[in-house]
From TrEMBL:
Keywords in alphabetical order: Hydrolase
Family: Belongs to the glycosyl hydrolase 3 family.
Domain Fibronectin type III-like, chain residue ranges per copy: 669-738
Top-level taxon: Bacteria
Keyword Signal in annotation: no
Name listed for the protein in its UniProt record: Glycoside hydrolase family 3 N-terminal domain-containing protein
Pfam families: Fn3-like, Glyco_hydro_3, Glyco_hydro_3_C
Amino acid sequence: MPQSRPTEDRQPYRDPALPVEERVADLVSRMTLEEKLNQLVGMWIYVSGAEERVAPHQEDFADDTPPWDEMIKSGLGQLTRVFGSAPIEPDCGAAALTRLQREITTSSRFGIPAVAHEECLAGFTAWGATAYPVPLSWGASFDPGLVGEMAASIGADMRSAGVHQGLAPVLDVVRDLRWGRVEETLGEDPYLIGAVGSAYVAGLESSGIVATLKHFAGYSASRAGRNLAPVSMGPREFADVVLPPFEMALRLGGARSVMHSYTDVDGMPSAADEVLLTDLLRDELGFTGTVVADYFGVSFLHKLHGVAGGPGEAGAAALRAGVDVELPNARCYVDPLARLVRSGEVDETLVDRALGRVLGQKVELGLLDPDWSPEAPGPREFDSAANRDLARRLAEESVVLVANDGTLPVREPGRVAVVGPLADDPFALLGCYSFPAHIGVSYPDWPHGIDLPTFRDEIARVAEHVDHVKGCDLPSGGADFDAARAAAAGADLCVAVVGDRAGLFGRGTSGEGCDAADLRLPGDQQELVEALIETGTPVVLVVSSGRPYALGALADRVAAVVQVFFPGEAGAAALTGVLTGEVNPSGRLPVSIPVTPGGNPGTYLTAPLGAASEVSSLDPTALFPFGHGLSYTDFAYSDLQVSAEEVGTDGAVEVACTVTNTGDRDGDEVVQLYLRDPVAQVTRPVRQLAGFARVSVPAGESRRVSFRLHADRTAYAGARGKRIVDPGLIEVHVGGDSANPRLSGEFRLVGEVREVGADRVLDTPVTISE
């Protein structure tokens, strides 16, 4: 029977006029140990019935959760993925969430609602919700403003359905392109990731959704690109490459939650790392929000890492390190941890520390106010016209025209052969966290819930005639090169669509747990493209993928190369717009495209010894570098000005140039500012992005682009490990990609070596004028 609480609504913790700290302290003082611990866990009520894994080792822990009715008698901290675990109509999902919240609040003594969290990596991961481009496409857009606009819309959809927390964005910096989760990242450069990721965070938070930064930290640098593999990384790489995007998203974006990484770095699992989660994250960076576990990550301390002898020890280690909430289920933080607290092996003040953070966030969300209601505001249309417009705009900006011999644009396509295993596959548009690919594949009798026109569909809309042949299956088998050749030979143009099909844990060629042995196009796709080239018909190679693939054997033999990174439900229309010239391409590569399949690991962000040299027979130079992308117009750079020859190590300098559209149509250029520190205390990158601006320039006109560069933006971890600004020469390079500067200059930092901390300047503001 529901417990009556006639006096609870008059207690101080229910008073919105009191400071958050007073309300939390009052509530904590009234709670039993069981009630406290239940606030530190989630519950995933749909996990046992899932047909396919959506989290590592999910099946190992599916039956470990206490019964629902028993669990909620002491309250509950979080509800795990009510919308994102099975297909459910939006109204039904909101009703289910309302029912669950009502049961939680009426069954427990204090009636504290749960925080409902969902995935939102490529849109709200719910049936019928807009499938936006994946984060690697956000990076390709180089457009923080549009990404922030998308995030605000995603957040509004989630909030309307009663959701409070979103598990995004992923701020891992790509270190090895073979890693399956490259599609979830924003690229290989920390500043690009930090700038675009911060905009996403700010947009999500503006809608009242708690943004959760993933995965803290070092996850993407796993050995051999294998998911969950150990990480070998020095403190400088961690400080200068891995950490900055998280710092930016916390300080500039305002993220209120952080999710620990699964991995171990130099032998220390992140979930048990007090230096990482408390000393660094809280004491140094000043984070005051909640740290949540990646799914089953606390249990992994026992089951996978071997640093705990059982669930209780795992819970104690994670709690001591600074993990506030165990997700997705209660396994280590309830009964096993309660026994250790009662025995005196774990101090209850550690429980209270985490509880204070959790309850503080619930107060901020209004969940402890007297007028809180379990009724959701009422779900908005999850795939509204406004959402679809956002998805289309972002998809258009993220299409990268990599190479073009003049064949594109084809303004009036005649007979077109559309060939490839992905040409007529709606899943060619979707990353592994889009609902149809993430959950929908387990429910084949359910419709996708959204319109997913394929590349073939959209090309057929504008061409006089389309012949479609798969040519081969993905990942392998079913090759019919003869039919593909015949279709191409009889066409005016051949569009070959190759790349990836996203999945989870080996069920795709890209996605979580779908790591690659090398960067050769999966299966028989390269052989298929070579067969098409042999026909003599111009071939436009379209790569729709979650990572870049080695194109050295193909790029100079095709008419054009177009790269899209799982561009979402509007992706096929965006690509077709670029092919026909309706859209002037403006996307830029957030990851380099390699020449050969085996040149890994490696990104553009390398010290001099990582570049090509006469002492090694292997040349790691990218085929197409980070930041590269073509347009249907031309841009000229001129009049570089650096405002001072000398700048104090605590000062700032203006770096400005003029960009002129010398072509005959309007276009967007992505102006990129790179720095090089040629003499430093430790080896520094050959070139590193320090600022960028997407600039719209009408045909025949010019724009003045000015970067305000603070000396802090040159800081790095010096010889003694402290982050410093070091006096000396700084080279300035401005242009359209990382390898080919159009303008170069320099200035000199003068003064004493200056140590900088977490309050340093993290961004490079840009001013654009006519």
